[in-house]
Structures are given as C-alpha cells and as structure tokens.
Specification:
The protein is an alpha/beta fold. Helices cover 41% and strands 17% of the residues. It has one domain (2-228): sialyltransferase cstii, chain A. The protein contains 9 helices and 9 strands. α7 (143-153) runs parallel beside α8.
Amino acid sequence: MAEDRKATIILDKIIKNDDIARVKALIEGRPVMIYGCGPSLENDLNKIWEAGLHNRFINVAVDGAVKALLEYNIVPHINVTDLDGDIASIVKANQLGSLTMVHAHSQSIRTILKVMPYLKGSVFGTTHSQPTEKVLNFGGFTDGDRAVYIVEHFKPAYIVLAGMDFGSVIGVYSGTFDPIRKHRGLMVGRMEIEELAAHTKTRIFNVTSAGENIRHVKPITFDKLKQMA
C-alpha cells in the first residue's frame, strides 16, 4: 500500500487541475457503453459499428480496448487506464479528445513518469489508495470494473458492457500482463461489478457475445439494445 500511495502522490504532482465536472457532464443521464479487452471485443465492436450504436452512447474504453475503437475510427469519450495497454493508442486518443483517466498504483509509477508528458489533453487521476485533490478513488480493482464504478458514480441513464468476458482466455488488446495476476484480477474484477450491480439503482446490461455470466447484470441481445438506444 505504501507504493500505491507513492504512485498516487507522484500522479497528483504531475497532473493538471482539470475539472471532474467535465466527466459528470458527459455521463449524467446518458446511456454509456463500456468496452472491455476480452476476446469478444472484436465481434462485439463489429456488431456495434454495423448497427451504428456507438453514435448513440457515451463510449468508454477500458485501457487497451482504446486501440480496437480507434481501428473502427471511434474516439472514445473516456479511456480508463493504468497505462499497461497500447500506449500509442492511449496517447493518440487523448490527443483526439478522449478524457484519459489514469490509475496510480505500485506497478505503474515508471509508466506514469514516462507517459504522462505525452498526454497533452485532459487527464484525470484515480487510485485505490487514499485520494488527493486531483487523484480520486471511485472504487474498483481492475481497469474494467473501475470503469463501471466511475460511470455509475456519475448517474448515467444505464450502462452496457461489451467485450467483458471474464473468462480464461485473455483478449489480444489486454497489453502486457502477468498471466497469474491477470486471471486473479479478472476474477476479482467480476466480483467487484457483481457487488456494485447488486446495490446500484443504475441498470447494467451485458451485450458481450461470449464469456462468463455476471451476477446482477442482465444479458441483452444486440437486437434488444438497438430498440432501447
């Protein structure tokens, strides 16, 4: 925890004092699609693109999923990342207008120091340690479930999860990772979403085409989603 705190303080010193109300203004009262890095992402994203659903949602990319969205010429409104996804895509999205929410933890200190100078657009800080004025704690453990916690905090109309498999196969957009830590993180991440979904008043749906069931999150088909959005 001491190193997590150290990372938080470092990020707080680097980050500009941007107004978190900008994130609230994007999300509050609007439907939000959160794109995970699971193996279903490419299939889900293709269906979302063909149906034009990306134009009807606030799009939130989880870490390396930003690379997949950019490949479809979708600039996510928000990118939630601990900077272990595709750095070039994270930087490019930030330059194109994405609000980048950078997570500080013990293993991201070097990357924060290396990458932050290239993030010239809007950057907000998150932590699972004690927050500061500019680095906030919304809850969550991994980038994926943290994105859900962030969005839920700002009271969207509803949330839809895509590319959120939480299975044994790791998606190609997940970036660099330790396999044991990654699988443990996915297990905890799913539990974090289930915990939030059990208590929130915000409706959370899952359009992910494969993967594990997420308790308290209602599966939804693309046809049904098109009728809702």
